[in-house]
Amino acid sequence: MRIKLLITFLFISIQTFAQTPNIGFEDGTFHNWKCFVGKIDSSGSISVEESIPVPNRHTIIDKNTFPALDPYGGFPVLCPNGSKYCVRLGNNIGGAQAERLSYTLVVPDQKSYSIVFNYAVVLENPGHEPYQQPRFTAVVYDVTDDEFISCPAFDFTSSSSLPGFKLSAVEGYKGDAIFYKDWSTATIDLSHYAGKTISILFTTNDCTFKEHFGYAYIDVNEDGEAAITGNTYCAGQPSATLYAPNGFKSYEWYNADMTQKIGDGQSLKLSPPPADNTTYAVKVFPYPELGCVDVLYTTVKKIDEGFRLKVVDTVFGCPAEGADITQAQVTPGTTQGAMLSYFNDELGTSYLYEPAKIFRSGTYYIKGMNTEGCMNMLPIQVLVSQPRITTIDPPPVDYPVLIDLTTTFAHRPELTYSYYKDAAATVPLTDYAAIHYGGIYYVKASMHGCDTIAAVNVVIHPPPPYE
Fold first, then answer.
1. Which end of the chain has fewer CB atoms < 10 Å from its terminal CB, N or C?
2. Contact in structure between 411 and 384 (CB atoms under 8 Å)
């Protein structure tokens, strides 16, 4: 079977400030980016020329006008990190097209400088030879020395064997399967290129036979956010937790000069928090063929300001509407103005895309951060359930025997019950414990705002005629 591989891409967090204006497209344009369009020929060679942005090949996605999910992977087309804009490079049409975006900057002179990016990657895999396949590449070109940086270089040729890809429920061209990779992370370490001019190049291309497509989403973080988060704590916090970027196979934490290993895993909890200006390093190990081993550094800062994140223990929801953990009453007492984000896991590696509509019971996580960068992450239990009630019609009786509706079902202490004359439960029944007349009555079971209504058929025979 021929296979389509859907590769959707890319949130980049680049550790820089004024050197990279609009690297995240946050002014809603391609300003400071270069756009290219071209073709892939029958031999697999790509040729592109610089151009103005071409609609549907270089597409700005606006948070307010494209609140959509990818049609193949079902994930948001905009990275759920609070960004206002991202870009789709390429499209799902085919045609042996190729597209490129590039951004050029001077690497600042500092100890650690890495480009950290999340990617999901989108290509079709029709079963052609590798050079004929749709492809996505992310490479770095050393403009100063006129050479490409060999590691890392990300080259995804469509294939059903790529690690981390999932099969889409949507069929592609002529029924081919489609694979997608949700948002993931890698780094490009530029620490050894201080003072040099480099260009980041992102390229997508279709297959050489003009039938199968490749495209990508790109969203660059331009606020100078470091690769390691959690490195700021506020006065009064009992601990601080450092979080390395998502998506790597393994992590090792060290002291500043890497002479002492102090932990493993994506996060490092420091309790009590260390002294102000303490530096830590984390060595990140990528999955095979998805980057290079890198060392990232961070310096812990203490802020003389209080910060508090409070989260209720449990939020309840009904199956039809789901649970909403974005409501203000879920985080009472949290520092005013804190920015909240929502995750499926305690490390913040998997965004919870619809925190206002959770339909599955489980443990979720809320991260709070204030304007000074102090942050904390706490769990919250979500219980989505429907009250259950099973009624049993009582046996027929002869008047003046009465029927007690409370005896027609098994009571559960966590539920509350009420009784009605109509199926919509709008006309209350006051004498439900002493029913005089036959008919159909209704019992409503309620729990945490969710209701279930069950009918009870009551048969009361009238007395025999007087003789």
1. C
2. no
Cβ atoms of 396 and 457 closer than 8 Å = no
CA distance 425 to 442: 7
In the numeric block, the tokens 């193949």 are attached to: 72
pLDDT tens per residue, range 160-200: 666 667 788 888 777 777 888 777 666 677 778 889 999 99
Q: Rg of the chain over CA atoms, in angstroms?
A: 30
Collapsing DSSP to helix, strand or coil, 130 comes out as: helix
Report the C-alpha gap between 289 and 141 in whole angstroms. Answer: 19
Q: Are 106 and 197 in contact (CB under 8 A)?
A: yes
Calpha distance 204→120 (Å, rounded)? 13
The H-or-E segment that residue 437 falls in is: none
Which secondary-structure segment (H or E) carries 440? strand 439-447
For strands 278-285 and 397-398, give the pairing.
unpaired
Answering whether pTM is above 0.70, one says no
**Cis before 272 (ω within 30):** yes
CA–CA gap between residue 291 and residue 116 (Å, rounded):
11
In degrees rounded to 5, what are phi and psi of residue 79?
Answer: -55, 130
Nearest to 344 by CA among 183, 110, 127: 183
Write out the two tokens for 142: 């050393």
φ, ψ of residue 321 to 5 degrees: the values are -100, -25
Cβ contact 433:446 at 8 Å:
no
| HSE-CB for 274 with a 13 A CA cutoff | 19
DSSP assignment, residue 371?
A: T
